[in-house]
Amino acid sequence: MTKLEQSVVINRPTEKVFAFVTDIEKLPQWMSELVEAKQTSEGSVGVGTTMSAVASPLGRRAESTQEVTEYEPNRKFTFKSTSGPVESKDEYTFESVEGGTKVTRVAEAEMGGFFRLAEPIAARMMRRQFETNFANLKDLLETQAEVIA
What we know:
By secondary structure, the protein is of the alpha+beta class. The protein is built from four helices and seven strands. It has a seven-stranded antiparallel sheet with strand order 1-7-6-5-4-3-2. It is globular. The termini are far apart. The model has no long low-confidence stretch (mean pLDDT about 90).
């Protein structure tokens, strides 16, 4: 089991950051490993919402489905995999801090198939991917006001 934690402070109000991060269709804008993400259930995002994603970790195409397991507006957004090559849980917490919003991601992953063989390499790559993704998110939200308007 691999567990990673990463945080970033974004100079934007918590409600704006939360709304952007929990917009499933926008995930590929800042998560560079995602080729596609879409909500597969009806209604607004909340506990029980399902989504599908296509990613390309380690240069391999991987399709997965996830379900939202925790949803507290402007505080917490958690989802877990329900299918795919990696059993995972991702938890995002949002905290108002001086200068904006602190976003923390805690991810737990149990590699399967090809990915189990490459778990040590995958863990290092995931850590770098988190850093890249949070840099992308920070840049998008702080410099491109139209994405959160």
